[in-house]
Amino acid sequence: VDNMWRVGVIHELFKGEAFVLCTEDQRVKPALVELSHLKPLGVPVDALNKMEAEIAGKRKDDVELYEDLHRSVGDPKMTNPTMNEVMITPSLLLTANDEDLCIFARSGGGSRYLQTLVSPENKKLCEKMVTSILSTDPLRMMTNPVSCFLIQKLIGYFYILPKSQQSALLIPIKENFSKLSLSGYGYHVVEAAITNLGLEQRETFILELENRVMLLSLLKSKYGTFVAQACVPFLQPRTVTSLVNNLLGHVVELGCHPSGTFFIQQFLAQWGPSSIMDLLVEDILRHLRSLVHHPQGTYVVQALLKARVDYHHMAMVTKWMVTNMEAVCKDKAAVQAIRCLIYLLSDKIMENMETQCSKLLDQMVNKLTDSAQQSRPLIIQASCHPVGHMLVVGLTKMGKKMGTDSRRRMLEMMMTYRSVLMADTHGCVVINNLQ
After folding, report:
1. Where are the beta strands (DSSP E) in 29-130?
2. Tens digit of each residue's pLDDT (9 = 90 or more) over 268-294
3. What 8-state DSSP symbol labels residue 18?
């Protein structure tokens, strides 16, 4: 009102700004203020007012933005605005022209403020926002670092929009599905559409995954993979079959890819038990060597084991692990996979008292205790290894769930080489776990 400091109340905090209310003077309207422009309550107001002449307390860029928006609706007071006068109200936004509203939405504070207004109570304002977005450059708004979150919020309240606006807003998303999904900010819009829309509208986007080129480009993108993962809970059997066929031959590449691996894991977690996935499961089992020893690929194998907890699949993986135990117990990724297998076998034994699963644990112990190299059994070598000792620790915890002979053989060997293990840092961990 008069460019003076006043005592205010912070109503809401944003990342770098606060929505402040002045309770002592009704002439001062609520406003968004930078946190750097606020002072603690203990600072005397009089002292601040004396310093006002020397301290610039305005944000030039935001003032120019507000000037443009006020000018567009014929506000004569904006010729020389102060911080208190720079205020945007919902009624002002309703009368703003489309271009100015979009400019406001592409600013950090503007986008956050508009997001707070998106609600069923502001139905007319939400319609105004959508109209402004569609009448300017919707693709630019959807790929903007801040305005994309406004559109994401609007899609979350899609049901309050008229049918005509719903259809109109979906058109640029459908037409630019690939571009938006691979965009660092546009993918938020597509992800919101898949998550929040109805069955028919969502299906339009999900069917895009049946295109092999589209699928692979999404899964290899650090942004597109989020779009593909958002589709997984809503897939129909037809699309699952198509995905399995398109993924065959690409399991190792995608399973070891820093982005693609997350889709494969989620796909297995959601649909792994289904018989539709049999071909994909077989493909993974044929490429265990490439996956088990890879930092990302190991999680694909673990996801498969958790999805297919039947004896047949666990026995196949156990057989491979036992055959390649020397390499497995010295590799971090492989040890993670075999420890996962050990714990799953343990759970199976506890649930059903499965003697078959107990025999699978025995196979691992027998391999470790029977193998010898440089006069020391493999279990002793693994116990002194920075990574392998974690495998041995995992097995010792399952002692009561394996066969009597295997447990006895393992403990006897540990005691025989007790002095060797106690002299090693990692071996001490194994011995301490036995006690």
Report:
1. 31-34
2. 999 999 999 999 999 999 999 999 999
3. E
What's the mean pLDDT when you consider all of the chain? 86
Asked if 261 contacts 294 with a C-beta cutoff of 8 angstroms, the reply is no
**Contact, 96 vs 49, CB < 8 A?**
no
Q: Tokens in use for 229?
A: 């993962």
Alpha-carbon distances, residue 281 vs 9, 231, 298, 303, 323 (angstroms): 59, 20, 14, 11, 20
Question: Cβ–Cβ contacts within 10 Å for residue 318, how many?
Answer: 22
**Residue type for position 345:** L
Q: What gap in Å lies between CA 272 and CA 256, rounded to an integer?
A: 18
Do the strands 372-373 and 376-377 form a parallel or antiparallel pair, or are they unpaired?
Answer: antiparallel
Chain centroid offset of residue 111 CA: 23
Cα distance between residue 96 and residue 102, in whole Å: 10
> Under a CB-based contact definition with an 8 Å cutoff, are residues 271 and 277 in contact?
yes
**Which residues does 111 contact at the CB level (< 8 Å), separation at least 6?**
105, 146, 147, 149, 150
CB of 196 closer than 8 Å to CB of 158: yes
pLDDT at 16 over 90: no
Q: Where are the alpha helices (DSSP H) in 176-236?
A: 177-181, 186-196, 199-206, 212-219, 224-231
Radius of gyration over every alpha carbon of the chain, rounded to an integer in angstroms: 31
Please provide the DSSP assignment of 24-49 as one string.
S-TTSPPEEEEGGG---TTS-HHHHH
**pLDDT beyond 70 at 413:** yes
Report residue 79's pLDDT band, with 50, 70 and 90 as the boundaries: very low
H-type alpha helices, 297-403 = 297-307, 311-323, 325-328, 332-352, 355-370, 378-383, 388-397
Contact 369, 379 (CB under 8 A): yes
